[in-house]
Amino acid sequence: MSLVFTSCSKNYNVTKIEGKQINISDKAASNQDIENYIAPFRKNIEKDLDSVLAYAPETLDKSKGEWQTSIGDFLANLTLQKANVVFLKREQKNIDICLLNDGGIRAILPKGNVTTRTAFEIMPFENTAIVIALKGEQIEEIANHIVTVKKPHPIAGFTFTIDKDNKVKNIKVKNEVLQLNRIYYVVTSDYLSNGGDNMDFFKKGVQSFDLNYKLRNILIDYLKDIDTIAVPSEIKIAKEN
Known about the structure:
By secondary structure, the chain is α+β, with helices and mostly antiparallel strands.
């Protein structure tokens, strides 16, 4: 198919289109004027990224743990804590549960000084915190989903047991037995709230609240508030032998 351009009484036909690939690499020549202009901005950004926020007594990562990981527990716990401050102030209600996704954790939290750069490496995406009101039935679905996909998705606020037949039992929310008809408030990411990672149970929510608070900023704000990170040790998912 040819393209025809009309101007007054003249017709122009495109008979040939040519192009070539221009590779961009570190060897490409830079514009010194542009480099000089952005240099102070880059310097300030680098300074902010390398600012020390807290200290980690040991490395937290997701390489160990069948149902829980140290970094997953850490992120879920702090997200529940910091997001609840905002939710309580806005809605006069408390968040019950936090559920994040294991795949959203993109780096370790290394032993030693923790910087803003570390937070960006762990959470490079622009996901925001969303609170979904779910019935107890959906909380049960969350537990079953975790067992089915066999991924240590970070959770906080609820616990359960996996029996010898890989069935979920003894679900508790804040140490209280799950009530199937009760409404629970679950903080998660905007990605998961829309059914990401096959978490379709979030689509059954009866109400949704956008906190306009990025998960990465929640992490940064938490780190600013503390001196030394407390390594999580709570058993949230128990497996019967």
